[in-house]
Amino acid sequence: xxxxxxxxxxxxxxxxxxxxxxxxxxxxxxxxxxxxxxxxxxxxxxxxxxxxxxxxxxxxxxxxxxxxxxxxxxxxxxxxxxxxxxxxxxxxxxxxxxxxxxxxxxxxxxxxxxxxxxxxxxxxxxxxxxxxxxxxxxxxxxxxxxxxxxxxxxxxxxxxxxxxxxxxxxxxxxxxxxxxxxxxxxxxxxxxxxxxxxxxxxxxxxxxxxxxxxxxxxxxxxxxxxxxxxxxxxxxxxxxxxxxxxxxxxxxxxxxxxxxxxxxxxxxxxxxxxxxxxxxxxxxxxxxxxxxxxxxxxxxxxxxxxxxxxxxxxxxxxxxxxxxxxxxxxxxxxxxxxxxxxxxxxxxxxxxxxxxxxxxxxxx
Length: 364
Description:
This protein has 364 residues and is an alpha/beta fold. Helices cover 35% and strands 15% of the residues.
């Protein structure tokens, strides 16, 4: 199948493939810039920017961790990440993924617009106030992530009532993605919630509002055949995260890439998260030691996500998500949290971003 360009707001994405936003430190300047350079859409993650380049852009750290929300979501670091990504991709469109569940969501959205994001992508909750936050940046395209027609219906109703604004694109994400899911644990396993089934349903709902809004399918998309299958089901493009980790340009530590290469299908599991939704990643020694006194002690320093209630939920599940994701970024195998989509075990080697995009566009 020939993949066709898509129009999102005022921007054309020549290759209708989004590289998923992955924090902490997985999709920053090197990966996102390199993806956008190919004509696909590179997406910078705003999560944990305080760790960028060994925390040299933050004001204060405690126990080698960015102190409080302002430093964990460092504006100065985000600006530097965008500046360096632009050195790679030039004027090509580039996005920023900002989880709705983070503390300081409103501030970080404005920071991303000021830093030069052409698109804002938000999941982990419905961003009902996004158009109000970006009113001074009319050229920035707004792309919410939903997991059902109902979620889309609620979002559109609120946007239209409050702002007379429709989304510029919609990402529909199924329960095979890496990281946090938009479903409960039991709902992740239900057939009706699998991506191939929710894409047509969300497309039908989307067409009630406009036939000009692209639908992007995400969660478990792996190769050209998967892309073709999603387009046949009604999508206009796809978003992929895990597969981009296995590139030379990916910003994360080589140890994370090696863990994915060594993983087996049975190693990739759903587990509890301080965010309140199940998350998917590689089962490593971390989850064994959480059950013992050898687990890292939970102390909220970065105050990263609202649902954690300053460490209350982290203590309940046995780990701080900010600390464990930063360990993964730094290559600390024993205590790192290594997110992966359900197909991450298929990774067997590291290739360039350009080679990966070529494979996805043309097939193996």
